[in-house]
Amino acid sequence: MIQTVEAIIEPDGKVLLLEPVELKEAHRALVTILEDEPLTKIPEMALLSEQSLAEDWNRPEEDDAWSHLQQER
Questions:
Q1: Could you tell me if 21 and 29 are in contact, meaning their C-beta atoms sit under 8 angstroms apart?
Q2: Please, are residues 20 and 7 in contact by the beta-carbon 8 Å criterion?
Q3: Which residues contact 19 (CB under 8 A, 6 or more apart)?
Q4: Which of 27, 42, 57, 71 is the most exposed, fewest CB within 10 Å of its CB?
Q5: What is the tens place of the pLDDT at every residue in 7-59?
Q6: pTM over 0.70
Q7: Residue in 40, 46, 54, 39 with CA at minimum distance from that of residue 7
Q8: Residue 32 to residues 19, 25, 38, 66, 71: CA-CA distances in angstroms?
Q9: pLDDT tops 60 at residue 73
Q10: Residues 29 and 16: beta-carbon distance below 8 Å
């Protein structure tokens, strides 16, 4: 099973997991080093495209097309 766990890598290379992980045995892992930006920052492109996407997506035709994915109430 593949899991993704947030971590911090210190300058000396020490990896600090930000949540507990329980494994029955040792596993291989990949580490991706991200830019040091706040996680709550919304990408500018998402904000710029929100209005134009809303115009296209907020139509009755779109609601009908995706209605099969809605839970029945």
A1: no
A2: no
A3: 5, 6
A4: 71
A5: 999 999 999 999 999 999 999 999 888 877 656 666 777 777 888 888 888 88
A6: no
A7: 39
A8: 17, 22, 16, 35, 36
A9: no
A10: no
Give me the residue label for tokens 């930000």.
Answer: 18
Q: Which residue has the tokens 């997506």?
A: 57
Locate 7 and state its tokens: 């971590």
Here the tokens at position 47 are 């904000």
DSSP H/E element including 48: helix 44-57
Q: Which of 9, 6, 2, 44 shows the shortest CA–CA distance to 23?
A: 2
